[in-house]
Write a structure and sequence with these properties.
CATH architecture: Alpha Horseshoe
Number of strands: 0
Shape: globular
CATH class: Mainly Alpha
Distance between the termini: 22 Å
Helix content: over 70%
Order of helices and strands: HHHHHH
């Protein structure tokens, strides 16, 4: 059950990362409220999967899921409400980058190369999104958008390989 729930989270992360990437790069019609609803929907789906990870006592999976969920709820609420304090959202994203840094170090210590790259790239993504909010400079968002698209592909590959039984390094 935990394996299925974790793979669901990875698929969801891939889709959410692509959406964030496209929005940050200005591809398509980008209505912030629509973007916020998509993120909140992803946050709800990941929250449901989190319940299964907790039930299966998957400590790392549940913690990783919680970090993704924080990002989705923080970003989604800020975009949907429109009048939310964006600094609070930026702080949530900034500090979540530290979780991903420590998670990547943990994964590297256990020689999980693919997951180390996946979590490691989330660090600059979080920090660049935060810097964009803090400074108002869109160049940080554009760089984060490219990283987000790459991350989406990486998470998609991980989810696919998990689903068909291919073990990545």
């Amino acid at each position: 059950m935990a394996h299925v729930a974790m793979n669901t989270l990875i698929w969801e992360a891939a889709v959410m990362l692509w959406i964030i990437g496209f929005v940050e790069l200005g591809i398509g019609k980008n209505d912030p409220k629509d973007f916020g609803w998509v993120l909140l929907t992803g946050g709800l789906m990941e929250t449901i999967a989190l319940a299964f990870l907790i039930a299966a006592k998957d400590m790392f999976g549940a913690t990783a899921a919680a970090a993704f969920i924080l990002l989705l709820w923080a970003l989604g609420a800020a975009f949907v409400s429109g009048d939310t304090n964006r600094q609070v959202q930026a702080h949530a994203v900034w500090f979540t980058g530290f979780y991903f840094l420590f998670a990547a170090a943990f994964l590297a210590k256990h020689h999980l190369v693919t997951l180390t790259w996946a979590f490691g790239l989330l660090v600059p993504l979080c920090w660049l999104l935060s810097l964009g909010s803090y400074t108002g400079k869109h160049v940080f968002g554009k760089i984060a958008g490219f990283i987000s698209l790459i991350e989406g592909v990486l998470f998609f590959i991980i989810a696919y390989c998990n689903a068909v039984g291919i073990h990545l390094p």
